[in-house]
Design goal:
9 helices
């Protein structure tokens, strides 16, 4: 699974989060532990690749450096792309913690986010200071970074407000303003859906010209996606598998 698919998953997860929160259900303990463990495996793979790359570009000549940068490009992109989902899940876990629904999950999700930010910082340090990075790669990676930062904040805009949102987003004030706009229309499911659909269309168009379609950790990305879906309880869906709205989710929870 390509990391861009994880951006799509973050979009879908944020849309369904309101219904899940209305049910007041904690995250599956096993799913939370699997999420942390799989994220840790992927993080270790990233750090190993980045360390080997750093050593290689310090030793080799200019022509071979270009080849090394081409080889590590999928890893750098995966770190930047998959950060969106990591931040969305951590934010969701923070809301569960705030509402005293689930504290343990928040701790695991925050730990995962801290590790991902470490990988991001290592990635950005290499982009800025690593010798031999082709200009076209530097431009693409910088554009991708900015794009994913915007996608993260625009996705978090549909989530319930958190006081410590700066932990999870890049422009807390902009996110807070967007959340106020959604609150002013009663967190309308229609508004949220249209917002996220427009966001999906926007980032897919933006990333087509800058994404390398090679995959660094296809299997781990897939397993992580399946684990994230396990955070959504069966009660959030009707008998046909269609997700309830937040209002219907509350009614279902009250009647059960």
């Amino acid at each position: 699974m390509h990391a861009l698919d994880l951006v799509d998953l973050a979009n879908t997860f944020s849309r369904l989060a309101a219904t899940q929160l209305s049910l007041g259900s904690p995250a599956s303990r096993l799913a939370a532990q699997d999420y942390w463990l799989l994220s840790r495996y992927r993080h270790e793979n990233w750090m190993e690749h980045l360390a080997r790359h750093r050593d290689a570009i310090d030793r080799v000549g200019t022509s071979f450096r270009r080849q090394r940068w081409h080889a590590v490009l999928p890893v750098l992109q995966e770190i930047l792309l998959s950060e969106v989902l990591t931040r969305i899940v951590a934010y969701y876990a923070g809301v569960l913690e705030l509402r005293r629904i689930d504290v343990e999950f928040a701790s695991l999700a925050r730990s995962t986010l801290v590790a991902h930010i470490e990988a991001r910082n290592r990635c950005l340090h290499l982009i800025v200071f690593g010798p031999g990075l082709p200009v076209e790669h530097a431009v693409q990676l910088n554009r991708l970074r900015r794009c994913m930062e915007q996608v993260t904040d625009r996705t978090l805009a549909v989530m319930p407000p958190l006081e410590n949102s700066s932990e999870f987003c890049f422009e807390p004030q902009a996110v807070a303003r967007s959340q106020q706009q959604f609150a002013s229309v009663g967190w309308s499911t229609t508004w949220i859906t249209l917002h996220l659909l427009a966001l999906t269309e926007s980032y897919w168009k933006s990333t087509q010209s800058m994404v390398d379609w090679r995959v660094a950790n296809a299997r781990l990305n897939y397993r992580l996606s399946q684990t994230v879906l396990r955070f959504l309880s069966a009660e959030a869906f009707d008998s046909l598998g269609v997700p309830y709205s937040a209002r219907m989710g509350r009614l279902a929870a009250e009647s059960s």
